[in-house]
Design goal:
Layout lengths: L2 H14 L12 H13 L7 E5 L6 H4 L1 E6 L2 E6 L1 H11 L5 E6 L6 H5 L2 H6 L5 E2 L6 E2 L5 E2 L1
Parallel strand pairs: 1-4, 4-7
Antiparallel strand pairs: 2-3, 5-6
Length: 143
């Protein structure tokens, strides 16, 4: 990647907070995403970078929250992105990066749900089904 390409990607990510990398399999998109995140953070702090891989069965319940079966009934379980955003809320002075590999494999409207709105309007609380508190994607979370 050239310095100009890096600068362009860096400024786009800082401005929009979300970037999709596309290309042929095996060309280094995931590697690039991690390196970009660590370069913005300034170190290899794995606590500020979370990576997941979507697949056909990935759901809103896995990503945000939902009821999961337990021994006798169901419990409301918080998902990986929900927990990541809560961690980022606790440290607003730091940047956090959530890398989604193979994003095209999941049904995005099903996985993201009302978060499609929240991606565009950071720090604005939204309602989550079956949950009384509002949810916020903090402005220090980059995807």
């Amino acid at each position: 990647m050239t310095e100009e390409e890096y600068d362009s990607l860096y400024h786009l990510l800082k401005y929009k907070k979300n970037v999709l990398l596309q290309g042929a399999p095996g060309v280094g998109k995931t590697y690039l995403a991690k390196k970009l995140a660590y370069s913005i953070i300034g170190c290899t702090n794995k606590a500020q970078v979370e990576m997941i891989q979507f697949h056909q069965n990935y759901s809103y319940e896995d990503f945000i929250m939902g009821y999961k079966p337990v021994d006798e009934g169901f419990d409301l379980k918080k998902g990986i992105f929900y927990n990541f955003c809560k961690k980022a809320e606790e440290e607003p002075e730091k940047n956090f990066f959530f890398i989604i590999d193979e994003i095209n494999r999941a049904d995005l409207s099903s996985v993201f749900g009302e978060l499609m709105y929240a991606l565009e309007y950071r720090d604005e609380p939204i309602s989550i089904p079956n949950f009384q508190d509002k949810f916020v994607i903090p402005s220090n979370v980059y995807i």
